[in-house]
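Re: the multi-chain job from yesterday

Posting the exact lines I submitted so nobody has to dig through the queue logs.
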Amino acid sequence: MTSLENVDLVSTRKIKVSTRNVRKNRRDTRDKEKDSLSLIPENFIFVKKYNNINSLKEKVLKYTKEDWHKYDYRQKNYMVHMNTKTIPLIWNEMDKYNQRNLEKDNRKFWPEADNYKTELDSLSQILTEKYGEGFITSALLINLPSRSIIAPHVDNQDAYFDLVKRTHLAIISDDEVRFIVGGEDKNIKEGEIFEINNNEKLHEVKNNSEIDRIHLLTDWLTIKGERNE
Ligand SMILES: [Fe+2]
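And the result, structure tokens for all chains:
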């Protein structure tokens, strides 16, 4: 009898110990999940309101249909961008190894960049304050015409997106323009600059408005060791 009681006591203790282990394992898993989630950047991070949006608006509204159609590399090479139109300011096409340029001195400045010197300088200042010393690797004016979409997609894996901070400055927009990243739906107002983290996330853009949406997209590469974050 005594020995049986002892057996029961031992087995009860074992059960208690194993229940404690299960709880601990669950806690560990939850903590790990939390840690991995905290590594995923927020979809949209507000950077700043751009001061002189009206002069930028004036400039981009002067472009004709032909101006928007002149450069078609992006819409031809990326099916998902087939509806968009681009005017490059600072932009290198992929090299023969399908790599992007990361060298400050090898950046390609397109003729239109001359008309945006002040704006690119102001943006560089804003991005330095936010992320630390660096430079703009790409700057593109992107037009998503009225009543068109960038269909839901996940970008091709590209280490470049881990290196740069991609921001959008909305120059011309409307309440009916939606940027959707990882299920989060955002309407970026004219003059607002947002960092957009859509790397490896499903994203799409819908322009349900009557006007063409024009953003200035910039990629900011921090100089190693100077990062603020
Ligand atoms: Fe994309």
